[in-house]
Fold this protein.
Amino acid sequence: MRVLVTGGAGYIGSGVVEELLASGHRAVVYDNLYKGHRDAVHPAAEFVHADLLDAKALHAAISGADAVVHLAAHSLVGESVQEPAKYYRNNVVAGLALADAMREHGVRWLVFSSTAAVYGEPAKQPIEETDPTAPTNPYGETKLAFENALRWYSAAYGLRSISLRYFNAAGATARCRERHEPETHLVPVVLQAAAGRIPEVTIFGADYPTPDGTCVRDYIHVSDLARAHLLALQALAAGHAGGSYNLGCGGSGYSVMQVIEVARSVSGRDIRLRIGPRRPGDPAVLVANSQRIMRDLGWRPRLQDLREIVRSAWEPLKP
Ligand code: UDP
Protein backbone atom coordinates (compact mmCIF):
# COMPACT_ATOMS: atom_id res chain seq x y z
CA MET A 1 0.00 0.00 0.00
CA ARG A 2 1.08 3.59 -0.57
CA VAL A 3 0.11 5.36 2.64
CA LEU A 4 -0.01 9.10 3.23
CA VAL A 5 0.98 9.79 6.85
CA THR A 6 0.04 13.28 8.01
CA GLY A 7 2.19 14.28 10.95
CA GLY A 8 4.70 11.63 9.95
CA ALA A 9 7.62 13.77 11.17
CA GLY A 10 6.28 13.76 14.72
CA TYR A 11 6.83 11.40 17.60
CA ILE A 12 4.10 8.84 16.97
CA GLY A 13 4.01 9.52 13.23
CA SER A 14 7.65 8.58 12.79
CA GLY A 15 6.93 5.36 14.67
CA VAL A 16 4.00 4.61 12.35
CA VAL A 17 6.19 5.23 9.29
CA GLU A 18 8.82 2.89 10.69
CA GLU A 19 6.19 0.13 11.09
CA LEU A 20 4.74 0.70 7.62
CA LEU A 21 8.10 0.52 5.90
CA ALA A 22 9.16 -2.53 7.90
CA SER A 23 6.01 -4.28 6.63
CA GLY A 24 6.77 -3.53 2.99
CA HIS A 25 4.41 -0.58 2.52
CA ARG A 26 5.35 2.76 1.01
CA ALA A 27 4.99 5.90 3.11
CA VAL A 28 4.53 9.51 2.11
CA VAL A 29 5.11 11.81 5.08
CA TYR A 30 3.00 14.97 4.92
CA ASP A 31 4.04 17.42 7.63
CA ASN A 32 4.30 21.19 8.03
CA LEU A 33 7.13 20.73 10.58
CA TYR A 34 5.30 22.97 13.03
CA LYS A 35 6.12 20.42 15.73
CA GLY A 36 7.71 17.66 13.66
CA HIS A 37 11.39 17.33 12.80
CA ARG A 38 12.82 16.94 9.31
CA ASP A 39 15.40 14.47 10.57
CA ALA A 40 12.64 12.31 12.06
CA VAL A 41 11.40 11.56 8.53
CA HIS A 42 12.55 8.09 7.62
CA PRO A 43 15.04 8.21 4.72
CA ALA A 44 13.01 5.60 2.85
CA ALA A 45 9.82 7.68 3.01
CA GLU A 46 8.80 10.39 0.57
CA PHE A 47 8.44 13.76 2.24
CA VAL A 48 6.03 16.58 1.49
CA HIS A 49 6.66 19.71 3.55
CA ALA A 50 3.22 21.32 3.52
CA ASP A 51 0.21 22.25 5.60
CA LEU A 52 -3.11 20.40 5.30
CA LEU A 53 -4.77 23.70 4.47
CA ASP A 54 -2.53 24.05 1.41
CA ALA A 55 -5.08 22.58 -1.03
CA LYS A 56 -2.73 22.29 -3.98
CA ALA A 57 -0.07 20.39 -2.06
CA LEU A 58 -2.67 18.20 -0.36
CA HIS A 59 -4.37 17.16 -3.59
CA ALA A 60 -1.03 16.44 -5.25
CA ALA A 61 0.07 14.29 -2.31
CA ILE A 62 -3.16 12.38 -2.00
CA SER A 63 -3.52 11.34 -5.60
CA GLY A 64 -2.01 7.89 -5.86
CA ALA A 65 -2.36 7.09 -2.16
CA ASP A 66 -4.21 3.92 -1.20
CA ALA A 67 -4.84 4.99 2.39
CA VAL A 68 -4.20 7.73 4.92
CA VAL A 69 -3.01 7.70 8.51
CA HIS A 70 -3.94 11.08 9.96
CA LEU A 71 -1.89 12.18 12.97
CA ALA A 72 -1.21 15.85 12.21
CA ALA A 73 -2.86 17.79 15.02
CA HIS A 74 -2.36 20.07 17.95
CA SER A 75 -2.38 18.03 21.13
CA LEU A 76 -1.84 20.07 24.29
CA VAL A 77 -4.80 20.14 26.64
CA GLY A 78 -3.85 23.38 28.42
CA GLU A 79 -3.10 25.26 25.21
CA SER A 80 -6.40 24.10 23.73
CA VAL A 81 -8.27 25.79 26.57
CA GLN A 82 -6.36 29.04 25.96
CA GLU A 83 -6.58 28.92 22.17
CA PRO A 84 -9.60 26.87 21.05
CA ALA A 85 -9.61 28.53 17.60
CA LYS A 86 -6.19 27.05 16.87
CA TYR A 87 -7.50 23.59 17.76
CA TYR A 88 -10.72 23.83 15.78
CA ARG A 89 -8.81 25.07 12.76
CA ASN A 90 -6.12 22.41 12.76
CA ASN A 91 -7.92 19.43 14.24
CA VAL A 92 -11.33 19.92 12.61
CA VAL A 93 -11.08 22.29 9.64
CA ALA A 94 -7.79 20.87 8.33
CA GLY A 95 -9.01 17.33 9.08
CA LEU A 96 -12.13 17.91 6.98
CA ALA A 97 -9.98 19.31 4.15
CA LEU A 98 -8.11 16.02 4.24
CA ALA A 99 -11.29 13.92 4.31
CA ASP A 100 -12.72 15.92 1.40
CA ALA A 101 -9.53 15.52 -0.62
CA MET A 102 -9.74 11.77 0.05
CA ARG A 103 -13.32 11.71 -1.27
CA GLU A 104 -12.32 13.59 -4.37
CA HIS A 105 -9.45 11.23 -5.12
CA GLY A 106 -11.32 8.05 -4.22
CA VAL A 107 -9.08 7.21 -1.25
CA ARG A 108 -11.31 5.19 1.06
CA TRP A 109 -9.32 4.06 4.10
CA LEU A 110 -8.32 6.30 6.95
CA VAL A 111 -6.75 5.58 10.33
CA PHE A 112 -7.24 8.51 12.67
CA SER A 113 -5.16 9.39 15.69
CA SER A 114 -7.67 10.07 18.47
CA THR A 115 -7.32 10.27 22.21
CA ALA A 116 -8.56 9.16 25.61
CA ALA A 117 -9.40 12.85 26.12
CA VAL A 118 -12.67 12.19 24.26
CA TYR A 119 -13.97 10.58 27.47
CA GLY A 120 -13.40 13.62 29.68
CA GLU A 121 -13.77 12.76 33.36
CA PRO A 122 -14.68 9.07 33.09
CA ALA A 123 -17.40 7.62 35.30
CA LYS A 124 -15.62 4.27 35.65
CA GLN A 125 -12.27 2.56 35.05
CA PRO A 126 -11.03 0.92 32.96
CA ILE A 127 -12.69 2.85 30.16
CA GLU A 128 -14.58 1.05 27.41
CA GLU A 129 -15.45 2.42 23.99
CA THR A 130 -19.14 2.23 24.87
CA ASP A 131 -18.67 4.61 27.82
CA PRO A 132 -19.98 8.15 27.37
CA THR A 133 -17.79 10.67 25.58
CA ALA A 134 -17.81 14.08 27.27
CA PRO A 135 -14.56 15.96 26.60
CA THR A 136 -13.55 18.57 29.15
CA ASN A 137 -11.30 20.60 26.85
CA PRO A 138 -11.12 21.72 23.19
CA TYR A 139 -8.40 19.18 22.43
CA GLY A 140 -10.66 16.22 23.26
CA GLU A 141 -13.68 18.00 21.81
CA THR A 142 -12.03 18.59 18.43
CA LYS A 143 -10.77 15.01 18.23
CA LEU A 144 -14.27 13.74 18.99
CA ALA A 145 -15.79 16.15 16.46
CA PHE A 146 -13.58 14.70 13.75
CA GLU A 147 -14.33 11.11 14.83
CA ASN A 148 -18.02 11.92 14.54
CA ALA A 149 -17.58 13.57 11.15
CA LEU A 150 -15.86 10.40 9.98
CA ARG A 151 -18.85 8.28 10.97
CA TRP A 152 -21.12 10.44 8.83
CA TYR A 153 -18.61 10.44 5.98
CA SER A 154 -18.53 6.66 6.13
CA ALA A 155 -22.29 6.35 5.92
CA ALA A 156 -22.67 8.92 3.14
CA TYR A 157 -19.48 8.56 1.09
CA GLY A 158 -18.06 5.14 1.89
CA LEU A 159 -14.90 6.59 3.43
CA ARG A 160 -14.16 3.93 6.03
CA SER A 161 -12.08 4.84 9.04
CA ILE A 162 -10.74 3.50 12.29
CA SER A 163 -10.12 5.97 15.13
CA LEU A 164 -7.51 4.92 17.67
CA ARG A 165 -8.02 6.50 21.07
CA TYR A 166 -4.50 6.69 22.47
CA PHE A 167 -3.85 6.58 26.16
CA ASN A 168 -0.31 7.69 27.21
CA ALA A 169 2.24 7.06 24.49
CA ALA A 170 5.77 6.76 25.81
CA GLY A 171 9.13 5.18 25.06
CA ALA A 172 11.37 5.30 22.03
CA THR A 173 12.61 3.15 19.16
CA ALA A 174 15.82 3.38 17.18
CA ARG A 175 14.20 5.97 14.91
CA CYS A 176 11.52 7.64 16.96
CA ARG A 177 11.61 9.46 20.25
CA GLU A 178 9.76 12.25 21.97
CA ARG A 179 11.24 15.68 21.19
CA HIS A 180 8.62 18.29 21.99
CA GLU A 181 9.61 21.90 22.52
CA PRO A 182 8.81 22.67 25.28
CA GLU A 183 8.45 19.15 26.67
CA THR A 184 5.38 18.67 28.83
CA HIS A 185 4.90 14.88 28.93
CA LEU A 186 5.75 13.08 32.11
CA VAL A 187 8.19 10.40 30.95
CA PRO A 188 10.52 12.69 28.95
CA VAL A 189 10.32 15.42 31.60
CA VAL A 190 11.33 12.97 34.32
CA LEU A 191 14.17 11.62 32.21
CA GLN A 192 15.38 15.12 31.40
CA ALA A 193 15.63 15.66 35.15
CA ALA A 194 17.53 12.37 35.47
CA ALA A 195 19.92 13.51 32.73
CA GLY A 196 20.47 16.81 34.54
CA ARG A 197 18.94 18.89 31.75
CA ILE A 198 16.31 20.34 34.06
CA PRO A 199 16.73 20.80 37.81
CA GLU A 200 13.59 19.05 39.06
CA VAL A 201 10.20 17.59 38.26
CA THR A 202 7.02 19.19 39.47
CA ILE A 203 4.31 16.71 40.38
CA PHE A 204 1.01 18.23 39.38
CA GLY A 205 -1.01 17.34 42.46
CA ALA A 206 -0.47 14.69 45.16
CA ASP A 207 -3.96 14.89 46.65
CA TYR A 208 -5.88 12.79 44.13
CA PRO A 209 -8.05 9.88 45.29
CA THR A 210 -5.46 7.32 44.14
CA PRO A 211 -3.25 4.96 46.19
CA ASP A 212 -0.33 7.44 46.48
CA GLY A 213 -2.25 10.63 45.73
CA THR A 214 -0.76 11.17 42.26
CA CYS A 215 -2.55 10.69 38.94
CA VAL A 216 -2.69 7.24 37.37
CA ARG A 217 -2.21 6.78 33.63
CA ASP A 218 -1.98 3.92 31.16
CA TYR A 219 1.44 4.04 29.44
CA ILE A 220 1.80 2.33 26.08
CA HIS A 221 5.04 1.92 24.15
CA VAL A 222 5.13 3.92 20.92
CA SER A 223 5.98 0.81 18.85
CA ASP A 224 2.88 -0.99 20.20
CA LEU A 225 0.85 2.08 19.37
CA ALA A 226 2.37 2.31 15.91
CA ARG A 227 1.69 -1.35 15.13
CA ALA A 228 -2.00 -0.84 15.84
CA HIS A 229 -2.15 1.60 12.90
CA LEU A 230 -0.84 -1.06 10.60
CA LEU A 231 -3.39 -3.60 11.86
CA ALA A 232 -6.12 -1.01 11.41
CA LEU A 233 -5.08 -0.35 7.81
CA GLN A 234 -5.00 -4.06 7.07
CA ALA A 235 -8.45 -4.46 8.60
CA LEU A 236 -9.87 -1.61 6.51
CA ALA A 237 -8.38 -3.11 3.37
CA ALA A 238 -10.01 -6.43 4.31
CA GLY A 239 -13.44 -4.80 4.60
CA HIS A 240 -13.66 -3.65 8.24
CA ALA A 241 -16.61 -1.27 8.52
CA GLY A 242 -14.74 1.17 10.78
CA GLY A 243 -15.13 2.41 14.35
CA SER A 244 -13.23 3.55 17.41
CA TYR A 245 -10.75 1.62 19.55
CA ASN A 246 -9.05 2.29 22.86
CA LEU A 247 -5.33 1.77 22.81
CA GLY A 248 -3.60 1.28 26.12
CA CYS A 249 -1.98 -1.55 28.08
CA GLY A 250 -4.76 -1.69 30.68
CA GLY A 251 -4.09 -3.32 34.03
CA SER A 252 -4.14 -0.89 36.89
CA GLY A 253 -1.95 1.77 35.23
CA TYR A 254 0.93 3.61 36.91
CA SER A 255 0.94 6.68 39.12
CA VAL A 256 3.15 9.71 38.52
CA MET A 257 5.15 8.68 41.58
CA GLN A 258 5.62 5.16 40.23
CA VAL A 259 6.89 6.56 36.93
CA ILE A 260 9.44 8.64 38.81
CA GLU A 261 10.55 5.65 40.90
CA VAL A 262 11.02 3.53 37.79
CA ALA A 263 12.96 6.35 36.11
CA ARG A 264 15.24 6.63 39.15
CA SER A 265 15.89 2.93 39.06
CA VAL A 266 16.41 2.68 35.28
CA SER A 267 18.71 5.72 35.10
CA GLY A 268 20.47 5.10 38.41
CA ARG A 269 20.17 8.82 39.05
CA ASP A 270 18.44 10.93 41.59
CA ILE A 271 15.46 12.95 40.42
CA ARG A 272 14.50 15.97 42.48
CA LEU A 273 10.81 16.47 43.06
CA ARG A 274 8.52 19.29 43.94
CA ILE A 275 4.82 18.89 44.69
CA GLY A 276 2.90 21.55 42.82
CA PRO A 277 -0.78 22.29 42.34
CA ARG A 278 -3.03 20.15 40.18
CA ARG A 279 -2.93 20.82 36.44
CA PRO A 280 -6.38 21.96 35.27
CA GLY A 281 -8.28 19.32 33.31
CA ASP A 282 -6.33 16.29 34.62
CA PRO A 283 -8.60 13.36 35.54
CA ALA A 284 -7.34 11.32 38.51
CA VAL A 285 -7.22 8.02 36.65
CA LEU A 286 -7.22 7.13 32.93
CA VAL A 287 -6.85 3.46 32.17
CA ALA A 288 -8.00 1.71 29.00
CA ASN A 289 -9.94 -1.42 28.49
CA SER A 290 -8.41 -2.44 25.14
CA GLN A 291 -10.27 -5.74 24.75
CA ARG A 292 -12.07 -4.54 21.64
CA ILE A 293 -8.94 -3.95 19.56
CA MET A 294 -7.43 -7.17 20.86
CA ARG A 295 -10.50 -9.09 19.80
CA ASP A 296 -11.20 -7.39 16.47
CA LEU A 297 -7.71 -6.64 15.17
CA GLY A 298 -5.58 -9.14 17.09
CA TRP A 299 -3.49 -6.34 18.65
CA ARG A 300 -1.38 -7.17 21.72
CA PRO A 301 1.10 -4.93 23.53
CA ARG A 302 4.62 -6.35 23.46
CA LEU A 303 6.29 -3.87 25.83
CA GLN A 304 3.81 -3.65 28.66
CA ASP A 305 6.31 -3.33 31.48
CA LEU A 306 6.80 0.32 32.48
CA ARG A 307 10.47 -0.42 33.15
CA GLU A 308 11.00 -1.45 29.53
CA ILE A 309 9.10 1.58 28.27
CA VAL A 310 11.12 3.99 30.41
CA ARG A 311 14.38 2.21 29.59
CA SER A 312 13.78 2.67 25.85
CA ALA A 313 13.15 6.40 26.37
CA TRP A 314 16.24 6.73 28.55
CA GLU A 315 18.56 5.11 25.97
CA PRO A 316 18.87 8.12 23.61
CA LEU A 317 18.91 10.61 26.50
CA LYS A 318 21.46 9.21 28.87
CA PRO A 319 24.59 11.35 29.15
N1 UDP B 1 2.66 15.29 35.11
C1 UDP B 1 3.34 15.80 36.20
N2 UDP B 1 4.43 16.59 35.98
C2 UDP B 1 4.90 16.89 34.72
C3 UDP B 1 4.20 16.35 33.61
C4 UDP B 1 3.09 15.57 33.85
O1 UDP B 1 2.97 15.56 37.35
O2 UDP B 1 5.88 17.63 34.60
C5 UDP B 1 1.49 14.42 35.32
C6 UDP B 1 0.22 14.96 34.71
O3 UDP B 1 -0.43 15.83 35.60
C7 UDP B 1 -0.56 13.67 34.45
C8 UDP B 1 0.53 12.65 34.14
O4 UDP B 1 1.74 13.20 34.66
O5 UDP B 1 -1.23 13.26 35.61
C9 UDP B 1 0.72 12.40 32.66
O6 UDP B 1 0.80 13.65 32.02
P1 UDP B 1 1.23 13.80 30.50
O7 UDP B 1 1.26 15.27 30.19
O8 UDP B 1 2.47 13.01 30.26
O9 UDP B 1 0.09 13.08 29.68
P2 UDP B 1 -1.53 13.30 29.68
O10 UDP B 1 -2.06 12.31 30.69
O11 UDP B 1 -1.82 14.72 30.01
O12 UDP B 1 -1.89 12.92 28.29
User: Anything to note?
Assistant: Residues 77, 168, 184-186, 189, 201-204, 215, 217, 256, 279, 282 surround uridine-5'-diphosphate (CB under 6 Å). The mean pLDDT is 96.
